[in-house]
Amino acid sequence: MSGVKRKRSVLNVKQKLEMLQKLDNGESVSIDAEDVLNEENTISHSAALLSVETLLDYMGRRGFDYGDITAVRKICVDIRQEMNKQQKQRRMTDFLKQ
Which domain of life is it from (predicted)? Predict the structure, then answer.
């Protein structure tokens, strides 16, 4: 599926704040993501990475469980890998255009 662009959905700020407040109160936020996502929003990898890194900072300051922090770090790694894949694909495409 390389080269296929998918439209990505993101939570709006209000939804993010509600989820963080629930987490802060010890509540579960295991909800179906498709129910709260707005399909018309898209986000770049760099913006997603910034958001996840901000979440990591928040989690570190609030003393979240190590396992939860590790899971969010894995998301950062996945985003960086996807960014690198796309950059490599662009370089290959540019090279082949010459």
Answer: Eukaryota
